[in-house]
Design a protein that fits this description.
six-stranded parallel sheet; about 300 residues; globular; single chain; 11 helices
């Protein structure tokens, strides 16, 4: 049976670019994009598109059966900052959608599941520098709590039902193709738009707040790589740490000013500072490197160059 992919939450920041990459891998007609509403992005012109509510189990089931789906990429989620403002809906969306898809895999309706976790699973008592794969995890945000719970469900379904579920813990994601979707690391995307449009930016984090970051190309490549790996190579069924680079707003500004010397920044920390303070500064991704040959291609300098060149 050929691979037929369903992306739930395809119109989000990662989902949009993941859709394009999967179209290249499997052919546009074998990639079914879905979301609560359709985007006018050109990437969705070639693939079938379904209006799909990720909190509606029967809608998901009907879509899987209609298109004879083999692999589901469950990208729908309410991100960190937005989840704090609407905790009950965040829990419903982030958790119920995962349980529905895991159940479909348990019942053999689909073969493989990709579900993204996040560095938000770590908390104030986790080691901040080179946070290891296995460590104290005490998230203090609704988003982090839902992602940690999801990791445990993934491992449970694999262990008890043989579900082939795979996951990575995304750091902050930086892309020029799509506006960010309400996360705490979004300053690292907004800053480029403001730098080019206004020549200045007011950052909602302190200048010395170091966070793990990754260019979208690397995030998409990690996602497809772990899904394409042999099942026997995937030794961690909760979620893998993946890493690329880490920087503070001040360090990012310094890199931007090398290409845009007149750019200026001010700092006005808001409620997102408390979220960022609970997260790691850098990540140890040794297990992903050893198990399925993960390595990032873009460092901070390369990310800045790509962002400015393409947004211009």
């Amino acid at each position: 049976m050929s691979t037929k992919v369903l992306i739930i939450g395809a119109c989000g920041q990662i989902g949009t670019e993941l859709t394009a990459a999967l179209q290249t891998t499997y052919g546009a007609l074998n990639v079914i994009a879905s979301d609560i509403r359709k985007s006018d992005n050109d990437v969705f012109a070639d693939s079938p598109f379904e209006i799909l509510d990720a909190t509606n189990k029967e809608q998901i089931r009907a879509c899987i059966e209609k298109h004879q789906i083999t692999d589901v990429y469950l990208m729908a989620a309410l991100l960190s900052a937005k989840a704090e403002k609407n905790p009950e809906f965040a829990w419903e969306l982030n958790m119920n959608s995962l349980l529905y898809v895991l159940d479909f895999a348990k019942d053999k309706l689909i073969e493989k599941v990709f579900w993204p976790s996040s560095i938000a699973v770590f908390g104030k008592n986790s080691p901040k520098v080179q946070t290891p794969q296995h460590t104290i995890m005490d998230p203090s945000t609704v988003y982090g709590i839902s992602k940690l719970s999801g990791e445990r469900w993934c491992e449970y379904y694999h262990k008890n039902h043989g579900v082939d579920v795979r996951s990575v813990r995304y750091p902050g994601i930086i892309s020029w193709k799509a506006r960010p979707g309400g996360g705490t690391t979004d300053y690292a995307v907004e800053i480029f738009h403001e730098a080019l449009e206004k020549g200045s930016y007011t950052c909602f984090l302190k200048e010395d707040t170091a966070l793990p970051m990754m260019f979208m190309d690397d995030a998409v490549r990690a996602t497809i790589s772990i899904m394409n790996a042999e099942s026997s190579a995937i030794k961690i069924r909760s979620s893998y740490n993946i890493s690329a680079t880490s920087f503070t707003p001040k360090e990012l500004t310094s890199e931007i000013q090398k290409l845009l010397p007149d750019f200026t920044i001010e700092y006005a920390p808001d409620f997102r500072q408390q979220i960022a303070d609970s997260w790691p500064e850098s990540i140890d991704d040794t297990d992903a490197a050893n198990d399925w040959n993960w390595s990032a291609h873009f460092d901070t300098k390369a990310i800045v160059a790509e962002m400015i060149e393409n947004l211009r």
